[in-house]
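Subject: for your reference before the review

Hello V.,

The reviewers asked for a structural picture of the protein, and I figured it would be easier to keep everything in one thread rather than splitting it across files. Below is the amino acid sequence we used in the manuscript, unchanged from the supplementary table.
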Amino acid sequence: MDRENKKKCILLASFIGVTLGIYALFKYIVPLVAPFIIAVIIAFAIKKPVEFIHKKMRINKGIATILVIGVIAFFLFFLVGYLLKMLLREISLLSENYEIYYNAINDKLSKWCGSIDSSMGLKKGASAQYVRGYIDEGVSSLQENVLPSIMEKSLGIVMGVITTLGVIIITVVATVLIAKDLDKILNDIKESAFAKEFRFVSKSIGNIIGVYLKTQGIIMLITAVICIIGLFLIKNPYAMLIGILIGFLDALPIFGTGAVLIPWSVYYVIDGDYYKGAVIFSIYCICYFSRQYLEPKLMGGKLGASPIIMLVSIYAGFVLFSFWGFIFGPVAYILIKDIMKEIKTKI
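And here is what came back from the structure prediction:
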C-alpha cells in the first residue's frame, strides 16, 4: 500500500472513530453531567458581573455569584409571572364568556355544515349531526382513556417535577461553587497534562453554543416582530402578547409557528374572512422562510461552514438526539471537523 492510500485509510479510520466517540459522548456521557455543563456555561456568562461586584463591594465571590444569580432569577420569575398573569386573565375571560363563544361556534358550525349539505345535496343537518357525533365521540374517548391515563401517571408527573427541581438546585449550587473558584479551576486546567486538548474542545463547543444561542435569539426576535406587525394589520387586540408567545414557540422544533398560525388561517378561510386568513398565512410563510434562510446562514457563516452543511447537521442531530439534537448536531459537526483537521496535520 503506497503512502497516499495509507494516509486515506488512517483518515477514514480516524473519522469513524471520532464520529462514534462523539456520538457516545453526547448520547451517554453528556446527559449524566448536564447540570454541571450548564453550571460551567452560566459561570462563564456571569464571570464579569461577579468580578465587578467582588472588587467594588469587596465581598466573597460565592456571595457575589448568589447575588447575580438572584437578580437574574428575579427578572426571569417576574417575566414568567407577568406572562402567566396575562394568560390566566385571558383564560378567566374565556371561561366567563364560555356560553357566548360556544353559541358562536355552534352557529358557525351550523352555517358551515349547512353550506356543505347544500353543495353536496345532503339532507339538511346531516353534516352537523356527523360532526357533533364525531366531537361527542372524541370527548367520550378523552374521558374514558386520556384523563384516567393522566391520573394513573400523576405520580410519575410529580416525580418528574421533583427531579427537575432537584436538577435546578444542583445546577445553581454547582454554578456558585464553580464561579467562586473559576480562576483557580482555569489555572489548574492550564497546568494539567491535557491543557491543549481542553482548550481545543472548549473553544469549539463554546463557539458553537454562543453562536447557536445568538442565532436563536435573533430569529425569535424577528419572528415576534413579524407576528406583532401582522396581527396589528388585522387589528388583533392581543397582537403584542400573541406575537411574543409565537416568537418563543418558534424556538421549539416540535411546534414552531405553524402549530398556531396554520390552523388559525384555516379557521378564517372557513369563516369566509379571506383577508385575515391570507394575512395569518402570510405571517407563517414569512416566519418559516426567514428561519430556513437565517438559521443555517447565521450559524454557518460564523462557524466556517456552508448553510447546507449546517442544515444537514441540525437535521441529523434531531434524528439522532431528538429535541437537543438541534444543538448537539452542529456541535458534533464542528468538533468532528476540527479534530479531523488536527489529525490531518499530524499524519
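For the response letter, the relevant points are probably these. The first helix runs from residue 3 to 45. The two ends are 16 Å apart (CA to CA).

Happy to draft the paragraph if you're swamped.

O.
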